[in-house]
Structure formats: C-alpha cells, structure tokens
Amino acid sequence: YGNTFNGINLCTNGWASFTDSTCVEFGNMPIPHPEPPNNMLAVFYDDMNLENGGAVYFYTNNSDTAIASYIDVPDWRQEGTFTFQVILVAPAKIYFQYLSLGPGRMDENSIGIEDEDGLIGLQVANDQIYAHDSLAISFYKHWLTANPENGIVQPDLTDTISVGFDAATLDEGDYTGTIDITGWDIYHQEDPLSIAVTMHVTTQTNAPGEEDLPLPVNYALHQNYPNPFNPTTTIKYDLPDAANVKIEIFNLLGQRVQTLVDRKHQAGRYSINWHADTQPSGIYFYRLKTEDKTISRKMLLLK
C-alpha cells in the first residue's frame, strides 16, 4: 500500500505484520479491520498453537526475497494441522502457498492483506471454506489506475478519464479489471456502468520499428536508456538462441536489488523496464545471465 519495509514480524496464529511486533491476536477478524494487527498479511489467520507441535521457519536472501513457512502447525483445539507459507519478492509481489490444511477449522480463518490503518484491504476469505491443499494466491502491485478516480460530470457536458497500465511487477499472462461509473441522475441511480478491461502482458520481442530486423547472431546487453534516469529506464537485450534468461539488478555493494526477468525466451530482441522508484540514487549494475553467457553493464539513478 505504497510503503517500504525492511523487516517483518511473524505471529504463530498464521499472520505476519510489517510493524506490529507485540500483538498475538488469534480471533481472525474481517479484512480490513482497524484493530491490531495492521500492516498485515493474513496467510491463514486462525487460532494456531505451536505448543502442540509444528514449527515456523524464516528465510531471506537479504536482498529481495523473504519466506516464512508454517510446517505442520496445529490449531488450538487440534482439529487440524496446517502447512503453508508466505513469499515476499521486492518490490511488490506477495505469494500465499498452501500445501496441506485441515481437516478441521477450514471455515474459521481470514485470508488477505490490509494497510497500516486497517481501513484499506483485500479480503480473500473470512470464516468460509476457501483455502485448500495445493493452492497458491498471488498479490501484485495495483496495475490499473484511473485519473481522476472520481468526480462529477454536469448534464450535457463530457469529461476525460485517463486509464494507466503498469506491468512492471506482473508475470506474463492475462489480467482483468473493471472501471465502475455510477450515474446520479434520476435515470441511472440504480444502473451503474461497468467497463471491463483486459490486458495481456508479454515480454516485448522487437521494439516498435524493429519488426523486420533479422534475429541477432550474438548475445548482447545494450546500455539502458535513458541513463542517467529517474525513476524508470529501459533495458534491451538480444538472444541468438532459445535460452533460460535472468536479468538482475545489483547495487554497488553487490547486493541483488531486484530480479526483472527469470524465464525461458526464444531467440529474439527483448526489452524490459526497470521502475526504481523505491531505490535511492546511485550507481547500479544490471546483468544478463544465461546458461552460456553473462554480461553486465552499469547505470546511474539520479533523483
């Protein structure tokens, strides 16, 4: 919800908070809710108890990834045993993964996320049977925006709404959203207009105007543009053959800041944008790595 954190607190009761290190609330509430815990990730928020077995493990690479795993943790009444985890990947990806759950207490939990005030949140489930074995839930940075988000259009006049798409944190695939327009005149008070929006995200192979270029004959990692930049820059790279490709960003200390690409590509010319709005000014290195080739370049972020 627009904030950056460098630590996280885990509660045995199946939730985590970026700021709350004292609350041990076990009564799973609806999401959002102003009472603590806030800044919360409710992975499987229920009355859990490690005194009856199970374990919780935490891992971080001290760069862009953290994982908390609850292994065979029973609930207080010992009606079920639960194995699940939350995976955080900077700057804006959250994954909930469920290996085995239950059999009891499956309708006594909350799943979702909420902000620091408990006023904004996304509830996936509350006291209903939703989660199940081998389930994964992904949360992404808000990719669809509208400006203005609200307003009034006077009779017989028009207004323009600008819709923006941000695919920086999205994996390849189809994403859908809606824009709801509510009419307040006497004819449309109960008849809101809902506009469906679909976006297909894919790695761009050829930049505009490059469609007729032949396939590259060598691996190449081009200088980012613009450089210096603030806060977004474009990185282009060429692949002469199909390959598993990883594009990573590192700071001057050699710490990985972000992984932009980690997937198999066909031969071609590609580009990816890096949005560095959460990073401080300074020199960064970006690296292309395949099974056969590693290439690095330097870039400068100036804010």
* Low-pLDDT stretches: none
Structural class, from secondary structure content? mainly beta
Helix content: under 10%
Order of helices and strands: EEEEEEEEEEEEEEEEEEEEE
Number of helices: 0
Beta-strand percentage range: over 45%
Give the terminus-to-terminus CA distance: 22 Å
Number of strands: 21
* Overall radius of gyration: 23 Å
Adjacency order of strands in the biggest sheet: 1-2-3-8-9
Mass-distribution shape: globular
What does the average pLDDT come to? 87
Profile the largest sheet: 5 strands, antiparallel
Written description of the protein model:
- The strands form six sheets. This protein has a five-stranded antiparallel β-sheet, with no helix packed on it.
- The chain has no helices and 21 strands.
- The chain is mainly beta and 303 residues long.
- The chain has strands spanning 9-11, 15-17, 40-45, 55-60, 65-74, 81-89, 93-100, 110-114, 121-126, 135-140, 144-147, 162-165, 173-181, 193-201, 220-221, 232-239, 243-250, 256-265, 268-275, 282-289, 294-301.
- The mean pLDDT is 87.
Observed structural traits:
globular, five-stranded antiparallel β-sheet
Quick overview of this protein structure:
The chain is mostly beta strands and 303 residues long. The protein has strands spanning 9-11, 15-17, 40-45, 55-60, 65-74, 81-89, 93-100, 110-114, 121-126, 135-140, 144-147, 162-165, 173-181, 193-201, 220-221, 232-239, 243-250, 256-265, 268-275, 282-289, 294-301.
